[in-house]
Queue: 2 jobs
Job 1
Amino acid sequence: MTKDWTPKDSAKLYNLKGWGLNYFQINDSGRLAFHPRRNSKRSIDIKHVADDIVARGVKLPALIRFQDILRDRVATLNRAFRRAIKQYDYKGRYLGVYPIKVNQLREVVEEVLDAGKPFQLGLEAGSKPELMAVLAMNSNEALAVVNGYKDASMMRLACVGIKIGRKIIVVIEKLSELKMLLDAADAEGVRPMIGLRAKLETEGSGKWATSAGHRAKFGLTTSEIIAAVRTLEKRNMLDCAKLLHFHIGSQVTDIRVLKEAVKEAARVYAKLYGMGAKLEYLDCGGGLGVDYEGSNSSSDHSMNYTLEEYTRDVVYAVQEVCQEEKVPEPNLVTESGRALTAHHAILVVDAFGSIETASAPIPVDETPTEHKIVDNIREALKGLNEENLAESFHDAQQALEEASTMFRLGFLGLEDKAKVETLYWTLCVDVAKLVNRVENVPEDVEAMVKTLHDQYLVNFSVFQSLPDIWAIDQVFPIMPLHRLKEEPTRRASIADITCDSDGKVSNFISPEEGDVLPLHPLNGDPYYLGIFLMGAYQATMGDIHNLFGRVNEVHVFEDDEEPGGYYVEEIIRGQRVWDVLESIQYNKFELVKMVKSAIDGRIKAGALKKREGVDLLNYYEEMMKEYTYLDRTDNLEPRTVVPAVSSPTSAKI
Ligand SMILES: *Cc1c(COP(=O)(O)O)cnc(C)c1O
């Protein structure tokens, strides 16, 4: 019980091994370190990086991209496929493409491409703007796969790509797209490379299961695939059919589902081959998972397989079918995005206060004029022990309700009401302390104890930085970056700074604690939390709810020669006040003009001196350049104390 808390205990508590893929460890100073090589030799202290960028004027919240992780993920996936191909003596090659919708940031795409060069890694686009980027960025050696719904101009764009030498494969999602593509190819005088997306019967597992199966939004049915082949035959273009594509949805949690899908698709490939469509590629889409909670299970936020197992299973399943069907083994393509990008990005946020349910900001001592109901609850508190725990709680609850009624009717003063509430919450906290020693705790007492955790106020917006938490109840690993030699004695949920009660995190990866996160008591010093595995899908899906804009970003590379073992390659400034205002049609100059005219009015009326007016206008203009988040560089607030009597539910406030 009294043994000293060690970094090991913290690592276990936050399940670092489960989700960190050996990229993260806690160092001897109790701080979280990043290990670019996934071994203990080289490490970068993440709190140090955070302090460093703050000292350079990059305010929090800030996103740190460890570009080395991105590179390592790319190499790991490609090497694993190469090993599996060698192990099974598979005849085709592996040629991955990175679907840029997962993270389109130019620096991310560039890094992925650069790390993927030795493996001829290509790109995948699913929209016009994505294709515009892919067309320019991809090399002539690597594949460029175009998915998603397309119009005639997008088909033409793809043909332009072919003309400039890019290896573009247009995947047909809908039969009508085939005619559009063939027309565009005719007009441009090119022979297109065509992919066919099969609507498989195997449905995915996990949250994105509906990406496949009969009711899926994408892909061709068996009869549509046959119709496409006939059309191509008629036009003497069957040799243009190059690739069979399927995608059973992102974050496939159960490997068995994936194996079934691969087998089904391989069968389709083989039969098409038999019909004369000599396809060269089988594209297994995305879906390679990320173990967000580190449970190595088939739950929604986990996966019951490893990356290596995935690659072996794909290779083996395709080979097995091809051997049975006596057709050549196709080159394998996958479109993994999440598994490549999730790990490299960490959002660093600071907790600037906490709301504790119970606190005594005013004295609750007996006063001569107080109402006797105050003393009722005081007595309940005094007499509380293990035996009468439920009874005392119920008495207190009743007193609280009575006090509330009396207050509404005008029979209880404000100060007495405050005393009753304070005493009530003090009693609740004391009950919570005793609960563990008592058997058979009544349900209502247990329910009350569960609501007693703190809320830590954290300077960020869930809607901007972690949209999936709000939209699909995604969980991300969250833990302090420092003080990890100290036992985290508080239990808290996290509240962001938007004026929206949905702006919170109340679901965490730990199966025991679930809706609370173990954290350290705030002590007046900055307290930094890292939110991990957020490199996939979060960046461009975020929005500017409450006009909190894009956050600052720094790109960090490891470098032995530099102090701390790293250098900051790039700082991308987040949006400022005027950026977000302009994005919703305000004009900076007009706003300033309007404020100026208000100031002029006050000067005319004699309420302001001219000099003051100038200062006020300057201040207003200066604010335009500020970061949209709270400026935490000047002071740390002490704990905010709010004795919450009833917590508002989900109303937007
Ligand atoms: C979204 C998507 C992907 C990426 O899936 P991940 O699970 O992130 O790897 C791949 N292919 C297609 C067609 C997609 O729509």
Job 2
Amino acid sequence: MILLNDFKRMDEDIHTEIVEACERVFRSGWYILGDEVRRFEQDLAHYVNAKWAIGCGNGMDAIEIALRTLQLRPGEKVITTPLTAFATTLAIIRAGGIPVYVDVDPCGQIDLTLVEQLLQQDITIRFIVPVHLYGIPINLDALSRLKRKYHLIIVEDCAQAIGATYGNKLVGSVGHLSAVSFYPTKNLGAFGDAGAVWGSKQLLEKQVRMYRDYGQSKKYIHSVVGLNSRLDELQAALLQKQLELHLDSYIQRRQKVADFYYSHIKNKNIVLLPVDTRARSTWHLFPVLVRGSRRDFMNYCEANGVQTGIHYPVLASDQKACASFPKISVSGKLTKAKYFASHEVSLPIHPYLTDDEVSEVVRIVNNWK
Ligand SMILES: *Cc1c(COP(=O)(O)O)cnc(C)c1O
């Protein structure tokens, strides 16, 4: 079976170095918020070209912490996409906000033209959480223009897109704050849960540090109602190694596989996304749109040894949890997002795929009728 993720191959590749990193932490006798976390935070800030980065418990907390730090008011609207991991919506709700969903573009990314129309209709809206879904960066020049023109407060959800660029801009460079997840399947994955927030304003750095650690400004002094969302030393040590030694080559491998898929998948019923030439995706996932029966295509792939996935089958706005949260609002019809929810299939694209496996995926996909 050609898998969507292959952690056993990863372990074979990096076993020795991760065991060494673990031993270093065990010998140190220090397990939460220490030197390993500080070092990883510095390296991460450098990688994403931010002034600072702060590790936290997971990607969902990272978004919540960012919104709280930017002083989202209780009951305030937050523009976001319905097509994403539900964690994006959960974080907005947990931070006290009300999601306002906007439809996506042909690449499955929040449609910034519709966002601008909404901002003109409703001048009370200040916040947006855009998602760089699948690793495809949204148009950061357009986002930056909206930021200036409408004084938008932006938290970029970079969970799937660390390292992606649009033109000369890195994802996570336009938002006031940016959030990332190191869930094991992500391009930079921990061996458990982890996440981070990064930014460039010093004042915000202090606040983020407070929010991740009980809202403490000093030991036993609680200035805000914070979270317990600390990064532990073990995950930080493992993440630091992955960042230093592997992230760039993992991304390059994903991009090579994607290039191969783009030049070799030729089946009129399998539509590849029309990614903007200025967007350099990190291909966390490789989505295609199926014309015809998605179920049939997925069963056929499975029967032929290719695992596939769906990202995502249910829009955030259609989740049961949202039905009990009546203030949630939807701007427009979400027609394209619904199309993705019912027609998208993700093909394998992890860095440990062999060339033979990539060719085999192409052969299987091209032979589907
Ligand atoms: C994974 C993910 C999250 C949540 O990250 P966790 O670490 O699982 O909390 C948020 N947004 C997107 C787009 C994600 O892919």
